[in-house]
Amino acid sequence: GNAEFGPTSPIPRLVTTEAAKVAPPGSVLVSVRAPVGALNLCREQLAIGRGVAAVVPGPELDLGFLWWLLHARKADLRAKAVGSTYDAVSASDLGDLRVPDLPRPTQQAVAAFLDRECARIAEVEAELAALLHVAVEGLEGLRSKLLHAADLGCSLERGVLPSWPRLSSLVDAWYVGGTPASQSPEYWTDD
User: How many degrees, rounded to 5, is the angle at CA 104 between CA 102 and CA 110?
Assistant: First the structure.
C-alpha cells in the first residue's frame, strides 16, 4: 500500500532483496487501493506492493506533466473505485485516463507553471496557518484577560477583595473518584 508515502516522495521503512514489483526512479506512484489516488514521485528504485502502481512515462510524456495530470484526474480515478472491503481501481482504470495531446515542450511549460504556482499557494497556506496559530493564541490570552478583568472588576467595584463563598458551599454533591482505603475491608477481597 501507500503506508510509506511521504508529502511528495516515499519514506522507505522496510528493505527487501526479493521484490515482486519494482518501481524505477522517475515514475509516479499511484495508490490503487484506499486511499485511491494518493500520489508520490519515485526518486529511487523501490519495491512496491499490491496497493501501489508505478506509472513510468514514455518519451512523449514529461514526468512533471504526468505528476500534475494525475493530480487533476484523482476525482476521475476515485469515481471508478469499487470494492466491498476497501475501494480499489485496476491497472486498466488507471490506463484509461485521458491525457491532453500536447507537445513535450508545452507539457514541460505547464508542469513548470504548476510547480511555481502551487509552491506559492503552499507558502500562502503556511503563512495563513502561522497567522491562525497567532490569532488563536491571542484570542485565548484575550479570553483569559477578560475573565481575569471581570473578576477584578467585581473586586474593584467594592474596593476590597470580595469575601466570596467557597464552591463547596454552593454545590449539592461533590464526587471524586479514587481507590478505597485499605482500612475499609468491605471494598477489598482476597481474589
Answer: 70
Cα angle for residues 100, 61, 95 (degrees, 5° grid): 70
Q: What is the DSSP string of 124-187?
A: HHHHHHHHHHHHHHHHHHHHHHHHHHHHHHHHHHHTS---PPPGGGT-S------PPPTT-GGG
CA distances (Å), origin 67, targets 3, 4, 84: 19, 18, 29
pLDDT tens-digit series, residues 42-91? 999 999 998 999 999 999 999 999 999 999 999 999 999 999 888 999 99
Question: How do strand 39-42 and strand 27-31 relate by DSSP bridges?
Answer: antiparallel
**pTM for this predicted structure:** 0.70
Residues 6+ apart with CB under 8 A from 82: 88, 89
Q: Which residue has the cell 514521485?
A: 41
Residue 80's closest CA among 46, 30, 124, 119? 30
Closest C-alpha among 60, 40, 64 to residue 52: 40
